[in-house]
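Per-residue structure
===
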Amino acid sequence: MTKPSFDEIFMKLALELAERSHCVKAHVGAVLAKDTRIISIGYNGPPSGTHNCDQEWPEEGCARDAKGSCSLALHAEENAILYAVKNGAALQGATLYTTLSPCLPCARLIFSAGIAKVHYKYSYAEYKGLQADEGVEFLKRFGVQTVKYG
């Protein structure tokens, strides 16, 4: 029997976490790991203690901001990083597995947190209809290894 790699396990978990999202528009999951151990997990949705979009606004989701993005939700990567930091986890050299490539603001957080590698399943640029994956380009420019999974 062939055992799955940790990359396979962590990406599968990120995909399953995406199903927990309360966002009406998109479902994204993330796993932070280091040395074959999970540090933190996250999925996109509103901050704890606020409204769940699918319950409060089941048809249209929460209000959009000036750029057309969700005005309430945190991205999966943000939730995973914030939870790790809140609990004192060291992120230097960690690997992030995410179902959607990071947007530019998340890429800046990923770099600043010291995360060394990002595996992503789908392109944020394709999802948003953008010319380029700015977040991936940013990470590559500053030495964070990025890998499109699958």
About this structure: The mean pLDDT is 91. The CA atoms of residues 1 and 20 lie 31 Å apart. The first helix runs from residue 6 to 18. The two ends are 21 Å apart (CA to CA).
